[in-house]
Design brief:
Elements (H helix, E strand, L loop, with lengths): L1 H5 L15 H7 L4 H4 L3 E4 L7 H7 L3 E6 L6 H22 L11 H21 L4 E3 L12 E7 L11 H13 L1 E8 L12 H10 L14
Parallel strand pairs: 1-2, 1-4, 2-3, 4-5
């Protein structure tokens, strides 16, 4: 019952519910499975990604959190299917703006997105306790609860609607719950331009005793 009340936190129509696969995560964040083993990991925000599902099946300790998880899994799956088809339709019109080394073609991209959604949906139904509803910039976790935190396709990408203060508050919260390392991908906005306040963010983090590194990764789309 409480979950139904909480679902009013965000209109599901406003969420684009499309996810990446476990393999994409390894490439996006330049990770090896060896680096993840024995670590407590948080995916934030995780959306329809299958990193948590496949990670736990492979023996890792992964938790996912997202504002979308205030909604029921069946609603999320239906929204995900709609969003994938909507995105593929528009991708056809704009395909020259993308690099197709990774996915080869639009049908290949569709398969990746459907696989991620199916794995996510199966796991959420079986292990709902791994999927925590949150509303950034606050998280319901203890200080240093996780060794590694991964954050994909959220911060910096939406610079046109999330202001600098939100980015700062969210970063501080991600750091609060993480003991060792936070990795963020990508460092560009929706136009593919480097986030305009990134140097300011890096200076802020360095002043607060964080080691910051920009790394080029093999994943580009």
């Amino acid at each position: 019952m409480s979950k139904m009340k909480q679902s009013t936190k965000l209109d599901l129509e406003r969420i684009v519910f499309i996810g990446r696969t476990f393999e994409e995560y390894l490439d996006m964040f330049l990770l090896s499975e060896e680096e993840l083993r024995g670590k407590k990991i948080l995916d934030c925000p995780a959306g329809a990604c299958s990193f948590t599902a496949i990670g736990n099946k492979s023996g890792f300790d992964v938790t996912a959190c997202d504002i979308a998880y205030y909604h029921f899994s069946e609603d999320l799956k239906n929204k995900g299917l709609q969003d994938i088809e909507h995105a593929m339709k528009h991708m056809e019109e704009a395909k020259n703006n993308y690099k197709w080394d990774y996915f080869k073609d639009i049908e290949g991209l569709r398969k990746f997105r459907l696989t991620a959604l199916q794995d996510f949906d199966n796991d959420m139904k079986k292990s709902s306790e791994r999927y925590i509803p949150v509303t950034l910039p606050t998280l319901p976790f203890k200080n240093d609860e996780f060794e590694i935190l991964l954050s994909a396709h959220f911060l910096f990408m939406y610079a046109d609607r999330l202001d600098y203060q939100f980015h700062l508050e969210t970063l501080n919260e991600l750091l609060r719950v993480t003991k060792e390392e936070v990795r963020i991908f990508p460092l560009v906005d929706l136009e593919g331009k480097r986030y305009k306040h990134l140097d300011k963010i890096i200076s802020y983090l360095a002043d607060n005793n964080c080691t910051v590194e920009e790394v080029k990764v093999p994943y580009e789309f």
